[in-house]
Amino acid sequence: MYRDPVESLEPLHHRQAAIRTLRVGMIGIGTVGSGTFRVLARNRADIAARAGRSIELVMVAARNLERAAGIVGDSVALTADPMQVATHPDVDVVVEVAGGTGPARDWVLAAIAHGKHVVTANKALLAVHGTEIFAAAREKGVIVAYEGAVAVSIPIIKALREGLAANRIEWVAGIINGTTNFILSKMRDEGLDFAAALAQAQALGYAEADPSFDIEGIDAAHKLTLLAANAFGMPLRFADAQVEGITALQGMDVACAEQLGYRIKLLGVARRQAAGVELRVQPVLVPAAHLMAQVNGSMNAVMVKSDAAGLTMYYGAGAGSEQTASAVIADLVDVARLDGVHAAQHVPHLGVHAHATNALAVLPRAAVHTSHYLRVPVHAVNQIQAIAASLAEQKVPVRQVALAAERPGMSPQVLVLTGQVEQGTLDLAVHALQARSEVAAPVTTLRVESLEG
Q1: What is the value of pTM for the model shown?
Q2: How far is CA 160 from the centre of its chain?
Q3: Where does the Homoserine dehydrogenase catalytic domain start and stop, copy by copy (predicted)?
Q4: Active site residue 223
Q5: Catalytic residue selected from 116, 158, 186, 223
Q6: Residue 276 labeled ligand binder
Q7: Which domains are present in the chain?
Q8: Is 28 within any annotated ligand binding site?
């Protein structure tokens, strides 16, 4: 059985305004939604003490009402129409955890238009439609909170907005997709190739049947877009991000990176430069002794470099029902504290200049300046110096040259670590290198990140 939403919410009108319960309507009762309900119920007293008032889930929109009733019982009004939650007068804040970018946009904009705060864990929605959503929220003076959309259990949005509020952020870099980190960990620890590691991730539930968003880097780019907006006060620029996944990564490069003292991680990087912001997701080499290289399995980590605090690092679970619920409820506590105060006192949706016309530009790929790893197949081991000389001729600084450990049936492999060089210059050098007679097969290149202060 489930209650009629209109009848069941009516008594809430009679609560005193000053101490009135924050009434939550939720769209979606899947993995995240059910976790949110459980944690709210289990920790009700602690949450109320921290928020300064009770937070109560009063209404849920679900496709399967019978299943939803089995989760929330008869204490919550149920509806099959998400718009009823988004517009109901007895709902103060709408939690959107259904996912997607089409209907979810309409529900969120409807909630805002009706003066409701919004909490969401939907990174795709915000990365694609966030500029429109945040503009609407500013106009109505309501909060849009999304801690659960970025790094799940890691409170990185709060850290950027509040803990590091005094700082000028120089760069943010993170392992922000648990599926790809699990796959890369398996490739390194067990010597698996990409396909085998992906199959294991799917068997264990870390990867979806269609894992494209994860393994192509799109999920990480959605999250990086939000991190950059908060770090630098820039608009959401997902369409301008450079995105490269791990599908083409070979097990041999994972092994060669280890040989050189590095580990490969799918890293999202947002770095402020004089001419704009680097906004990129790709597999990179990280020094094996670095803390970021120790982040294994499905865990996430984000590192921030700022002028006053220096280097700070945040670590935690990157997926999970109650882990995401923790972030969703933290946002609800913020809403409970700020609801009713002047709109100017609300936690800002993004950075202070997110709607400015002179916002920072995103640097094109050719202008990104990093060190690089090259793996060059050659016909003979005595051709190693010819490879280094070719790169030097093309103005690419060479820090280290080595031969990869021999593998049965494979030609010799020359490994190169370069100094800092623009991507455009490196691309030209690799093109010239590829045309040389010594080179036996396509050259593999990956960026190298030191993640130093």
Answers
A1: 0.91
A2: 14
A3: 155-333
A4: yes
A5: 223
A6: no
A7: 5-152+322-345 (3.40.50.720), 165-318 (3.30.360.10), 365-448 (3.30.70.260)
A8: yes
